[in-house]
């Protein structure tokens, strides 16, 4: 059963279109190996599973939050965005991504809390002290990178040392990524505090 005002799939054929990638939520069209047209659908993904029914306007909200944050941080780090001509659509430069996700954590929550509860005292090569409780604030934010597992589409924890050893990113590039990550986290913390969202 379809839900009104829900975008679950697109079937566009743009001039110069080379291919289309259909992810769990986003659909990405490659135009002449120069531009990407990214469409945020209303599909809902949880724990790497796409649910059979979407949420009306979810894609618009997702895309508009991403657009707002890229515009709010473009003075810190260059990004791919050129324009957002529709609430669900972002158009930008085709770029070659780094094969690593730079995750930064200010609090013992989510994945970090689950790993800690399971007895792990090191996350992505970062040592964690004894006695932490869920949602405790770290004395300093920690960077806990992830990469895609070789089999499947799930994220895999990885340390800075392993990233460099495996040649996923050069040391020079990693230092730039780490600098950007910390600067973006600081800006995000400031923006949240301005809206009363700090602890």
From TrEMBL:
An example Gene Ontology CC term for this record: cytoplasm
Catalytic activity entry: 5-amino-1-(5-phospho-D-ribosyl)imidazole-4-carboxylate + L-aspartate + ATP = (2S)-2-[5-amino-1-(5-phospho-beta-D-ribosyl)imidazole-4-carboxamido]succinate + ADP + phosphate + 2 H(+)
Residue stretches making up the SAICAR synthetase/ADE2 N-terminal domain: 20-197
Pfam families attached to this UniProt entry: SAICAR_synt
Protein name: phosphoribosylaminoimidazolesuccinocarboxamide synthase
Family: Belongs to the SAICAR synthetase family.
EC number: 6.3.2.6
GO biological process, alphabetically ordered: 'de novo' IMP biosynthetic process
Keyword annotations from UniProtKB, A to Z: ATP-binding, Ligase, Nucleotide-binding, Purine biosynthesis
Organism taxonomic ancestry: Bacteria, Pseudomonadati, Bacteroidota, Flavobacteriia, Flavobacteriales
Pathway: Purine metabolism; IMP biosynthesis via de novo pathway; 5-amino-1-(5-phospho-D-ribosyl)imidazole-4-carboxamide from 5-amino-1-(5-phospho-D-ribosyl)imidazole-4-carboxylate: step 1/2
Enzyme class: ligase
